[in-house]
Specification:
By secondary structure, this protein is α+β, with helices and mostly antiparallel strands. It is built from five helices and 13 strands. The chain is 24% helix and 25% strand.
Length: 204
């Protein structure tokens, strides 16, 4: 039986597969393992649609790359490892983080999907951890409200709702160049929450 009372990020990574569901829905919070509810279908739909939009965007712009369900070591001593839906990296070697399970490399953009109660309850903690670590932009995807909230430290939060468009041009960096992380990226918010046709049940 493994001792999961207080773990480092590296020990947590080694122990994950001995946890319930092979550690698929677990995070490390201040050295202690927390088990999350499996995400609802709305989570999978949102991540699928955003990943398709990002793939189309990268075919043109070819700067940066996304990782999915990558563990981010957002703090140390005690260690906290969060698994956001999407982490978008700029700089460094292209795709350097893709094959990792956890990393202490900081992404420029983090996407969290609030698809379960435990993810909602911990939202304030997550926002603080990411921004305190230095993540420049957060997208908080809310399937209940059909909205995406853009959070940037030092700026007023912005919400793109179902009838609006999520624009990467509003996701400005804090770097000296003050350039958007995803210039010219656009997706209708309604499209983020719309299941693909092959997911929809046929009408009787």
């Amino acid at each position: 039986m493994i001792d999961v009372a207080r773990l480092s990020a590296e020990s947590f990574d080694d122990a994950r597969y001995d946890l319930p569901d092979g550690g698929q829905w677990v995070e490390l919070v201040r050295g202690r393992v927390e088990i999350l509810s499996p995400p609802e279908e709305e989570h999978r739909v949102a991540v699928l649609n955003l990943s398709k939009a990002l793939a189309g965007y990268l075919n043109v712009h070819r700067e940066g790359y996304p990782c999915f369900d990558l563990g981010l070591i957002v703090s140390r001593n005690p260690d906290t490892v969060r698994f956001p839906a999407i982490s978008y990296f700029l700089g460094g070697e292209l795709f350097a983080e893709t094959d990792k399970v956890i990393t202490d490399t900081r992404p420029a953009l983090v996407v969290e999907v609030m698809s379960s109660n435990d993810r909602r309850w911990s939202l304030n903690d997550r926002v603080f951890e990411y921004t305190n670590w230095g993540v420049e932009v957060l997208w908080i995807v809310d399937p209940n409200d059909k909205a995406v909230h853009t959070i940037r430290p030092g700026y007023a939060n912005q919400a793109a709702r179902e009838h609006e468009t999520l624009s990467g041009n509003l996701s400005w960096r804090h770097a000296a160049t003050a350039q958007p992380i995803l210039p010219d990226f656009r997706i209708a918010v309604a499209d983020i929450f719309t299941p693909p046709e092959y997911w929809q049940k046929p009408r009787s």
